[in-house]
Amino acid sequence: MLPLKQELQERWLLKQATDDKLFELYEKWGESLYVWMDPTADSLHLGNFVWFMHALQYMKRGNKLIFIIWWATWMIWDPWGKNSERSFLDRETLASNVVNITSQVSFLLDNITKLSGQKFEFTIKNNLDFFEWMSYLDFLRDVGKHITVNNMIKKETVKRRVESDDASISYTEFSYMLIQGYDFVQLLKQYDCKLQIAWSDQRWNVVTWIELIRKILDKEAYGATTPLILDSTWKKFWKSEWNALRLSKEKNSPYKIYNYFINTSDEDVERYLRIFCLEWIDVIERKLEEHLKDKSKRLAQQYLAYCTTELIFWTEEADKANEIRHILYSGDEKIEKITVFVGEKWHGKEFFEAVWWSLWDNMSILDALTLSGLFSSRWEAKKAIKNNAISLNESKVSNLWKEITDSDRLWWKIVLLKKWKKHYACLYRE
User: Fold this and answer.
1) Are 305 and 261 in contact (CB under 8 A)?
2) Of 313, 283, 321, 312, which Cα lies nearest the Cα of 300?
3) Which of the listed ranges 83-92, 125-134, 158-167, 327-336 does the model predict with the highest average pLDDT?
4) Rounded distance, CA 387 to CA 66, Å?
5) For 248, which of 43, 189, 208, 276 could close a Cys bridge (C-beta 3.0–4.6 Å)?
6) pLDDT tens across 350-381, in order?
7) What residue ranges define each of the domains in the chain, with the CATH number in brackets?
8) What is the pTM of this model?
């Protein structure tokens, strides 16, 4: 096992640390660290998975991970990156989102534990517990007095909103960073948690919270930041088309995650392998060496896609996604193989649930292309048809107003859509 800091660096997971003493401390085992997840949606996305992999490097060394779900924090929202105040989520929505995220986190870490063969310690906490019985006056006296307004205004997002004539900031949003900081205070006080992992753009906040701990508890705490992951086109890597890829089978299929990684560029694949694979660095390097002998075989992309899908959704789903890929890329035999599977093996829906969407009578090709997620708008779909980029059951589509009829369906049930050469969707009729 490499030294902790070196492994984090070689896996592209470390941007900055507030003090290098933390690496020595967390090499010794038995410490706690935390990451936070916000419940603004009912599912985590692939970007959150980067934090799992960062935290995993500490857990491999016998340290305990605490997941904080920001129920209390997101009752007032975060002003970061916004020019106006957002609508609040009601308690019922937040409660439902917290339940779903808790289930996802537990499932994901159970997967990682089983696949690695190592026992990882973790717990999930709700930061509402820190505030529910605390009065407003207590919060002002015990927390607010320790951070100056002068310091808070220095934060770029807050400064921009304060100075703007059009985008003011409310007192509620302004107090957001105090709530974040108090989480860290309570985690250190109650669980001896000395380290927070955050995105690199949160470093200012992390330093402020560490200072708050010094003032309230007179103790040392640390922060480590993860770099924002951009692909070779400078786009956030976890975005697919216009949607974030979710860690939920109900939001997007395991195949969609698999397909996203199988299409990773050669410029990005080494970095992604280092970030997302459980294997040791020397094993990953051997995989890359094999890949470089003949990049056309895309061995690194196949390994990356399988490993990531397996970590998130388990081995059975990764196997299924892999088999679907082989069918969809089986050349001239593709339609025949699909027809066999629909008619004989998994009866269509069971197999193609990875890429299927509901199909109704005489659905227009434009509706099919947008409903399936291949395009975010009918305008984009029209443009692709004009550019000869769309196929229906492997036959090019040129008619913008085509309707999908009974004669287009394989086994009276499904149609296969393709965008360019790599992106597929299967529409299925109940």
Assistant:
1) yes
2) 283
3) 125-134
4) 50
5) 43
6) 455 545 556 777 889 999 898 887 888 999 99
7) 4-226 (3.40.50.620), 253-329 (1.10.240.10), 333-430 (3.10.290.10)
8) 0.83
